[in-house]
Structure formats: C-alpha cells, structure tokens
Specification:
- The complex is a heterodimer of chains A (about 625) and B (about 350).
- Chain A is of the alpha/beta class.
- Helices cover about 30% and strands about 20% of the residues of chain A.
- Chain B folds into three domains: about 110 residues, Fumarate Reductase Iron-sulfur Protein, Chain B, domain 2 (Orthogonal Bundle); about 70 residues, 2-Layer Sandwich (Alpha-Beta Plaits); about 150 residues, Rossmann fold, CATH 3.40.50.
- In chain B, about 40% of the residues are buried.
- Classes of the chains: A alpha/beta (about 625), B alpha/beta (about 350).
C-alpha cells in the first residue's frame, strides 16, 4: 500500500467516493467526492500531537471496537496517506488539537467536501466484502455472552499491534483462555441468512487455531465444522499439520451455546456426527467464524458503475469462466471478493488480471467492439419530428442511447453491446441491428416455415443461454422432436412481437420464446425487456383464443439441455393433442388478426427486398 | 454403458421410498439435508429419553431407501413435532414434517408406536369432547359402541350399554398427559404418571419435619417440573439432589399437572408450589405449557377463597438456553415463602 502510494504514476485518493460516472470505455468522466478531513493534507505531517491532546474517545472500528480512538485520528498506523482526520460526529470543538498543531496550522474546520471531475480511461472495482453480524443468531449468544467473539475480533486480539499487544484474553475477566472453540459457517451455508460458502473461513479457522496452539501449546482447541474445505495448493497439508498439532476437529454444527452465569464459561451443544451422539463441552472462549457478505453500499456502486449483481449481491462478471475479471460494461473491471468470495492468492491473481485488462484499454488508441450494434434510421424516428417517445432509451441496459425530443435518438456505438432490445421495442421500426436486421430475421422465419408450417415448432433462442441449452441437448444426445426449427438472436430482448405474429401468420404450429434466466442475462436487463414483451404476447394470444401451449415462454440456461429437450417434447405433445383439422381451422381463423398485427413490419426498410429474395429462394427450392 | 442405463431405469421407473415420503405434504426437501447435526443437538430427546433418537440419520435412512429400518427407528415414533429444530436448520428443512410423513407411511404399513398411550375408562367417559380439543396431535376421537358399565340400580352388577366415548389412537398419542389433566370425568389415565402416582410423590412421608427436609426450619417447597424444560446437566443434577425443604416431582409436560395436586399439597401443609414448564414456543408437546399457564392463573385466583396468599403458587418458564437459572429460581421462591407464615403441617391427610 505504501509502495503504491509512493509510485510516481499512482495517485491514491483515500476518503473519497465516486458520485457519478459518465462516458464510455477509454473516455470516462468520473465525479469524485473528496470528503473533508478538516485537516489540510498538504500541511499535516502525521506527527500525532493532535491525537494526544484530544479529550474524546470513541470505539475504534479498525480494532473491532475492542479499543478506543480519539475524535482526531488515523484509521490505522499503516494508513495511506498518513494524514489525520477529524470525526465530526464525535468532536466537541474544544480546539485543543488546533493548539497542539501550532505553527503547522494543518487543522481547518472550515474545509468542505470537494467535488472534482476526472478523466479516466478504465475503472477497476475492488471494493471487497463485509462481515455478517452474528448477533442476529440468538442460539450463539454473540453480544449477550462476553466470551463469544467473532473471528475478526480474534484477529485483533491475536495481533501484536492490536489492543492487547497480541495477548489473547477473555473479555469477561481478562484471563487467558485454556479451552477454545471455533465454530465455522456462522451465517454462511445457512439458508436463513446467507446460502453461500464463504470460501476462506475453513482456512483462517485452521490458521488461527495453529497460531494459538503455537503460542499456548497446552491449550485445548476445537474446531466445529460441517465440512472442511481446503481445496487449494498446500491447504490440505496445512489442515493435516493442524491435526498433527493436536487441534480437535468435531464434525457437527452446534445448535446452541449456553453460558454458566457464575464462571462465564460457555457450553457448546452439538452432535458429534462421527459418534452420532449429542455432546456438551465446556470452553473458556468461543470464536464465531462468521459469513462474508457484500459491502453494505454495494447497490450504490452498482448503480453508479452500471454493474449488475449476481444472486447474493456480488458484482456480475462478463462471463463466469472466461472473463471473470471483466464487468458487463466495457472498461470497468472487477477484482477480489466484490465479484465473488475468494482468498488472498486468488484475489491477487484476479487483481493482476484486471490491472492488465485495464492497461490494454489505456494503451490503445482504438477499441474494437462486436459489429452487431444498433443504428437509428433518423427519418423514421418520431422524436426527430418533435414527438415524445424515448422507448428505446428506456430499453437500453447500457444507457447507450441519447434521447432528446426534437432530435432523432442517437446510439453511442462504443457503449452498445448489441442486445437488440431497442430494435424490438421501437414502435416505429426506426432502429435496426447490424447483422440481425428485421429483414434478415424475417427471411429466416419464412424459410424455416416454408414447408408444412403447421407441423413446425419455431424456437426463438438467445445466443447465450437457450441456444447453448439447445446445443447441449444435441451434444448430450437428448432426443427431442425433429419438428423443432431454431432461430438465433442475441437476446430475448430482440424477439420482436412482429416476428411472433409473422410466424403465426405463416401458419406455424407452435412458437417457443426462450432466453436466459433473469439473473443470467448477458445484457444486464435484456431478459426483463424480453419477458415483459412475452407476457404481453401471451395475454394477446389468450384473448384471441389460441390453444394454450402453442405459444410458450421458457427461460433455459446453457446448462439445461435436458430442459430444452423436455420443453420441445412437451410442445410437440400439445401439437399432437390438437386434431389436425382443428389446428388448421384455428390457424386460418387467427390469420387475419396476425396479419393486421404484423403489418407494420413490411414497411421496414429492406424487408420487402428480403421477402422477395426469400420468395425466389423458395421457388428455386421447388417449395410451394 | 449398461450400468448407466440400469441406474437410470431404477430412478425413473420405480417410485423410491424417498419419493413416497416426498409425496406427503411436509415430506419435501428431505434431500437438502447435509447431515450437520444441528437438529440432533437442538432436540432434547436423545439426551433425555432415547440415545438412538437421531433425525439426521432418519433422513439418511429414507434417502438410502432403508424402509424397515426407518419404520422401526425410534426417531419415527418419538418426535413430538415441537419444531425446536425447524428454525435452527440451516437448510430450512421442516424435519418434523418429514418425520411425520415417514410415520404416516409406517402406520399404513402396519407398524405400531412403541409409546404407551393414554387410556380411557370407557364406562366413566361421558364423551364431553374436552380431551379432543386439548390433544395437540388429534389423536382422540369420539366413537360409539357397546360398553360394560356398572349397574346403577344393582350394586356390584354390570350392564352392557351402547354409548359414546373417547378413543385414543395409539399410534398418534405422544403420551403428554394433557388429556388426563383436562378430563372432566377424570377417566383418562397416563401410565407412569397417573394422578395417584404423582400425588403420592408429592405427599410422600419424607415431608415430615425432622425426617429429611425441614432440618433448617425453612419453608417446604414442592417443585413440579416438566421433564423437557431443563437442558443443562448441572441443572438436572439439582433436581436429582434438591436443596433442603424442596421436593421435586417430574411430569412429562407441565400441562399434565392438575390444580388438585397443588391444592392438596397446600392443604397438607406444604408452604408453596413451583411449577416449571418450557418457554412459550418451546413446549415439547406444542401447547401444554400454555394450557397450564391459563389453568394456574385461575387456581391462583381461587387461593384467596381458601385463605391463602397467591404467591404460594408460581408458574415459571424455563428457556432451553438457560444454564444456572434453576438454583436462582429455587432460592427466589424459598426467600419469598420465608416471608409468609408457615402453614400447619397435617401429616394425617396422607
């Protein structure tokens, strides 16, 4: 940290928050709020005279509130920069610090927060994690029993620079504990609180146990666990070493801690799973290895940087296996536990990867993107004619569309990721997506439904999930109806209502509208745009009196090949259950309505040429 | 390849034991158990009644399809659905629901409960239905049939009449005794905890001054304690060897206690009665503690008519988390009784 701060090319801004981010990859403009320390950083030399005279003591957050700090303070001795800060909530304005500071005149209570805009090329998010508060778990009595502490409190007690100079003592009486218990998975792997495994608790529990055993060899140390997870290099060996040192491992999740009111000793009630028997053991002190959770202000960072969250509140990566250090927004990178819980070596690796990805942005004059971006036909956009619309801007998950009444909507190409949501949402067909134009997709629909359309199941698949699901169904040899005809678009957001109407107008037997599960969407909120549209379609078809099951909406991930096959087979079963003449009659009955609803599509530029071409192709193939 | 298809066939073509358990409402989510043992140590049955009791292992038996073992496992029959474990389970499995599903299948398969159910004296029962309302397990129903009753006209003779009476389903009864204490005709008996047995313990001879209890001249205190309410070993040791002047009588549930036990003890000259039950929400039989609380609140009001102070009767909740609270509670109650005039000791009352 100190090294980084000294580097001539590194500018460290601590006590600073990001307020707003504008622009795009390579050209971000970031509004920073440099919070006022009430100390001039250019004058403070970190001598600490102010802190010595300050009469106010408040709990020290860095020491897990086990020690006090003054109202003018540095967070910790290695703080960068080593400049003091006044905690105005605690300060009583006695100005003794101003006196002590003397001629340096570094303390200035008139300082205000500073708002500065900075030009930034790339952003790396490394906001880390927070800890679960175990006091909500009544059964372990944290906060009620003084000798039940958390692992972070243990870290401070065991630290030679900590409040007890590294001496482990019991909070109730200051004695050195002889019998110690660690409880793992406190609030993690627990559906009542946090369902995930916090990844590194097993290892730090073993580490703490080993450190304590080295310092107090005659102490009796027990780790209560559900499963010990030591999957990385050298970890299992470390676990072995702990066992050899005589640390007890009991498989069994304690259900209860009770306290002897006289001695303040603790009784841990657990089933020893190996024995199949409930055991009650007495300890002097119990450490809770609590769950790691997302930072409390994660939603704010999410909205400022436009990064979605995975379930639980971790920042969503671009791709879980291939691009774990990239966020869905170009030029914004992720490092460490904010993306998902990981230990130190993995965090360092991801941090280095994110830094080098950011370096790639900073070193290039041009930035290549996929050519599947959206473009506006300015003469068709009604906003240019002074009418209020803005539907495209609302649909865009990336804020890539600039919209203003009186001007045609404008797509910022560098920000567009090519989901096609705006294209499908535009009620005037004024936007097109390169390589996925209405004309191209309609031509595919016509061709796929050229022959006996009433037998066909036309499946709209999104590139990232349901297409992958269909692919997996194929490579896994899951059998499904051969009447299925797949059509790929980038996202369910691109699946225009008019495509569906056109498919039914052509006489399709059934249509599947499929995409990612909401939390998996590759385009942040694209699936939600698609889902809302699918619901409208479903209602419309219900009102028209279409047989239920002919139009189906399913969210299928790339790992759900079995589901894809099952859905298609179920749709086939629906088709099989309708007598053929009844089906043909229904198609004919609904055709005029479908035609009316799909009419506007033919006015879209290029569509008529494409249709004529498809017609010629069909003739050439000898199809009616 | 062949092996794979064989496994596949088993999973799809036949309904496994686990499938049948899952199909019963309450039996879902059983596959989510990862055997952490929280339920086992939260539950008091293994420590207090049956060392083989282990819900985690029962779930395992079901998942492995070990039907006979599951049906004969004490866990299937002893779980009283107090649901102490449910809010503690990190996988949020409704364990008593799963056990209930196994029990239902066991009953359907002809297995029977090892517990001794409450007995109804059919001749004395007048089918008022109080027990039906109070039973937490819906184990009692009103039936009618031929019953042999004493002939009211001829002493020593019997008659066979067609009448209504309460009938206990032996497989559903958990033997808490709530029905026995609520019965208006005193015609329901819980073996091991009959009125006579409890009364005899409460009024046993060693209450006499100078024999065992009142050597310090302090007050005499009768403690009626629910078997489940005290968890810590150190506290149960106090019950085994109570301080001078204190007599402990255990019951399966505080709801088993009728006010008669308290009043006869006071009549005999016991200075006070302390009833200990589980904390609300922790009753082993779901609602026994609440029934008893209501009952004793009424009894306290009646003490005035008998010319006795209301403090002589006390009902105390004991949370399962408590440790060391029992001796404090006993000291408190004895100090309170020491402030009151001692009652006259009347050994002639039995």
């Amino acid at each position: 940290m100190v090294d980084a701060a000294r580097h001539p090319k590194v500018d460290v801004r601590t006590y600073t928050e990001i307020e707003r981010v504008e622009g795009f990859v390579g050209n971000f403009k970031v509004l920073l709020r440099e919070k006022s320390r009430y100390v001039r950083t250019d004058r403070c030399n970190g001598c600490g005279e102010c802190t010595r005279v300050c009469p106010i003591e408040v709990p020290n957050y860095f020491e897990m509130n086990l020690a006090p700090r003054k109202a003018i303070y540095v967070a910790m001795s290695q703080s960068v920069p080593l400049k003091y800060t006044v905690d105005l909530d605690a300060c009583i304005h006695c100005y003794k610090c101003v006196e002590a500071c003397g001629k340096l005149e570094a303390i200035d209570f008139s300082l205000k927060d500073k708002l500065v805009w900075e030009d930034i090329g790339a952003i790396v998010v490394a906001t880390g994690f927070d800890h679960f508060d175990p006091s909500v778990m009544d059964e372990y009595g944290y906060g009620r029993y003084p000798n039940v502490i958390t692992s972070m409190e243990m870290e401070r007690l065991n630290n030679s620079a900590g409040p007890t100079a590294g001496n482990l003592i019991r909070p109730s009486d200051g004695q050195t504990p002889k019998r110690l218990a660690f409880i793992n998975c406190v609030g993690s792997r627990d559906k009542r609180y946090n369902p995930w495994c916090s990844n590194f608790c097993c290892m730090y529990a073993i580490k703490n146990a080993v450190l304590l055993k080295q310092m107090y060899p005659d102490s009796d140390i027990t780790i209560y666990y559900m499963d010990i997870r030591t999957p990385s290099k050298g970890y299992e060996e470390f676990y072995d070493r702990a066992r050899q040192m005589g640390i007890h491992f009991i498989q069994g999740r304690p259900s209860l801690i009770t306290e002897d009111p006289a001695t303040r000793n603790l009784w841990v009630h657990a089933e020893d799973v190996a024995l199949g028997r409930v055991i009650e053991r007495e300890y002097d002190m119990v450490m809770l290895n609590q769950a790691a959770i997302p930072q409390r202000d994660v939603d704010k960072i999410s909205s400022v940087l436009n990064i979605t969250q995975s379930p639980g509140g971790w920042f969503m990566e671009y791709h879980p296996k291939l691009r774990p250090m990239d966020s869905p927004t170009d030029g914004v990178f992720l490092a460490g536990a904010c993306q998902g819980l990981k230990d130190i070596p993995t965090s360092v690796a991801q941090g280095s990867a994110a830094a080098s990805r950011a370096g790639r942005v900073l070193h290039s004059d041009e930035w290549e993107i996929e050519p599947i971006v959206a473009q506006v036909w300015e003469d068709r956009c009604i906003s240019a004619q002074g009418k209020k619309c803005g539907i495209c801007a609302q649909a865009c998950p990336y804020g890539a569309i600039e919209y203003e009444v009186g001007k045609a909507a404008h797509v910022v190409t560098a920000k567009c990721h090519g989901c096609g949501g705006c294209v499908a949402e535009c009620p005037h067909n004024a936007i097109t997506q390169m390589h996925f134009t209405d004309a191209q997709i309609l031509a595919q629909i016509r061709t796929l439904l050229a022959d006996h359309p009433e037998d066909k199941i036309l499946a709209f698949r999104c590139q990232w999930c349901s297409y992958g699901g269909a692919d997996l169904a194929g490579t896994s040899h899951f059998e499904y109806s051969s009447n299925e005809r797949g059509l790929r678009v980038m996202c369910s957001a691109r699946m225009d209502t008019e495509f569906i109407y056109e498919a039914f107008r052509l006489g399709a037997g059934a249509v599947l509208y499929s995409g990612c599960h909401p939390q998996d969407c590759h385009y942040i909120t694209g699936q939600r745009v698609g889902e809302a549209r699918a619901e409208r379609l479903m209602n419309a078809f219900d009102k028209m009196g279409m047989t239920p099951g002919r139009f189906r909406v399913e969210w299928i991930s790339a790992a759900e090949g079995d589901k894809y096959a099952r859905v298609i087979n179920e749709m086939q079963a629906v088709l099989d259950s309708i007598p053929r003449e009844k089906l043909l009659e229904e198609i004919e009955r609904l055709r005029p309505e479908m035609e009316r609803r799909a009419r506007r599509m033919s006015q879209t530029p290029q569509v008529s040429e494409a249709m004529a071409f498809a017609e010629r192709l069909r003739m050439a193939m000898g199809r009616p | 390849m062949n092996h794979d298809t064989a496994v596949h066939a088993v999973h799809t073509s036949t309904q496994t034991f686990a499938d049948r358990v899952r199909a019963i409402p309450g039996g879902e989510h059983l596959e989510m158990c990862y055997s952490c043992g929280t339920c086992v140590s939260k539950c008091l049955i293994q420590q207090k009644a049956e060392p083989r009791f282990n819900p985690r292992r029962l779930l395992r038996l079901v998942m492995m399809g070990m039907e006979h073992e599951a049906f004969t496992d004490p866990t299937t029959w002893l779980c009283s659905a107090c649901d102490l474990c449910y809010p503690a389970c990190p996988q949020q499995i409704h364990i008593s629901g799963v056990i209930g599903a196994v029990k239902q299948l066991a009953i359907e398969a002809g297995y029977t409960s090892p517990l001794t159910p409450a007995r109804v004296d059919e001749a004395a029962c007048f089918a008022c239905g109080t027990c039906i309302q109070v039973c937490p397990y819906h184990a009692i129903e009103r039936v009618s049939g031929l019953v042999t009753v004493p002939d009211p006209m001829a002493h020593g003779q019997t008659l066979t009449v067609h009448k209504e009476f309460a009938q206990v389903n032996p497989n559903l009864c958990m033997a808490c005794g709530l029905c026995a204490s609520s019965c208006l005709a005193s015609c329901i008996t819980l073996d091991g905890y009959t009125d006579a047995q409890i009364d005899a313990q409460a009024r046993a001879l060693d209450w006499q001054p100078g024999v065992a209890l009142s050597t310090d001249g302090g007050p005499r205190l009768l403690v009626l304690v629910c078997n489940w309410s005290i968890r810590a070993d150190a506290d149960t040791a106090i019950l085994d060897e109570p301080p001078p002047g204190v007599r402990v009588v255990r019951v399966p549930c505080s709801g088993r206690i009728t006010p008669t036990f308290l009043v006869t003890a006071l009549q005999k000259g016991v200075d006070g009665v302390l009833v200990i039950g589980c904390q609300p929400g922790e009753c082993h039989y779901q609602q026994g503690n609440l029934v008893e609380q209501a009952r004793l609140a009424l009894t306290r009001n009646f003490l005035d008519l008998l010319g006795l102070e209301a403090q002589r009767i006390r009902f105390a909740w004991m949370p399962t988390q408590s440790r060391g609270a029992l001796s404090r509670l006993l000291d408190e109650m004895r100090d309170e009784l020491a402030q009151l005039a001692p009652l006259e000791w009347r050994p002639e009352l039995g």
